[in-house]
From TrEMBL:
Residues 3-208 form the NAD-dependent epimerase/dehydratase domain. InterPro entries: Epimerase_deHydtase (IPR001509), Lipid_A_modif_metabolic_enz (IPR050177), NAD(P)-bd_dom_sf (IPR036291). SUPFAM superfamilies: NAD(P)-binding Rossmann-fold domains. It comes from the Bacteria. It holds the Pfam family Epimerase. This is NAD-dependent epimerase/dehydratase family protein. It comes from Nonomuraea mangrovi.
Length: 299
């Protein structure tokens, strides 16, 4: 199997490259950064929006590249997620295409309760990230395997874990909602497994999470314990958190600095966000491990 991986210099793309190489596949790694720490794997810097596409033939493409920010210039986010996806598919005509999307394509204005794949996309989103990822899905749906993870974590995480650690104040981890909120999380290892399975799966959308949902409080306490941090979660109610996030976004508009808390983030932590992964099990052969933060002290 000869496979191209986009976003290879990032968290998810790098994990997919290593998993594919471990299976004995020939991996061609592409990313926007000048260099990537992928050992002996061949790596090429490629700007998916403006750069010339590579002249390579592959059996499959696993498209992990894109903008994952919930706060930033909308035009840049749309270019990265929609134009970049279209260009990645066009660069390798005839290759099977696996597109890493997100659970943010589900309705952000109501709880997501064991959602099945037919519940997305929806008509409106709270930011450019959700809207652009839905548009990217529409651009490839029917010709690609589309994977929808939620809250990806694991070794090399550059988004979720750093944001949590920045929320620690005076021995407390500030969190929103209640600790009883149920969430589906996705370890990067489970996602990499799904990406490799997707190479030979029928086109369509698939939810990809850990084996079972967890509560927010249980997840946070395990993570803090594994990181050896003597910190306890302190929960802020959803309505108060939404007001704080709205104020932070207003201030950010003037300072040009990303807000510490966004309404998008509140919406993904304060209410249930769980996904049904039955379809992935039946059609991908996906058998995920349970949520675990074992070894998080080394992340």
């Amino acid at each position: 199997m000869r496979v191209a991986v986009t976003g290879a210099s990032g968290f998810v793309g790098g994990a997919v490259c290593r998993a594919a190489a471990a299976r004995g596949w020939e991996v061609l790694a592409y990313g926007r950064r000048p260099h990537a720490d992928l050992g002996a794997l061949p790596y090429t810097s490629w700007d998916l929006v403006h750069g010339e596409p590579p002249a390579e033939r592959v059996d499959a493409v696993i498209h992990c590249a894109g903008s994952v920010t919930d706060w930033g210039p909308p035009r840049e986010i749309w270019r990265a997620n929609v134009t970049g996806t279209r260009n990645a598919m066009a660069a390798f005509p005839g290759a099977r295409f696996v597109h890493v999307s997100t659970a943010s394509v589900y309705d952000p204005f109501r709880p997501t309760v064991m959602a099945t794949e037919d519940e997305a996309p929806v008509r409106r989103y709270v930011n450019a990230y959700g809207a652009s990822k839905a548009a990217a899905e529409n651009a490839v749906m029917g010709a690609a395997v589309v994977l929808r993870p939620h809250a990806i974590y694991g070794k090399g995480d550059t988004t979720l874990l750093p944001r949590l650690l920045r929320s620690i104040r005076a021995g407390r981890l500030l969190a929103v909602g209640s600790g009883a909120t149920r969430l589906s999380l996705t370890s990067v290892d489970n996602l990499a497994q799904a990406c490799l399975l997707g190479v030979t799966a029928p086109p369509g959308a698939y939810n990809v999470t850990d084996s079972h949902p967890v509560t927010l409080d249980a997840a946070l306490r395990e993570l803090l314990r594994e990181r050896r941090l003597a910190v306890r979660p302190l929960y802020i109610g959803e309505s108060a958190a939404m007001r704080m996030a709205a104020l932070a976004e207003i201030i950010s508009a003037f300072t040009r600095r990303p807000p510490r808390l966004t309404r998008y983030a509140v919406g993904h932590l304060a209410v249930e966000r769980t996904l049904d992964i039955t379809k992935a099990g039946e059609l991908l052969g996906y058998v995920p491990a349970p949520t675990s933060f074992a070894g998080a002290a080394l992340w």
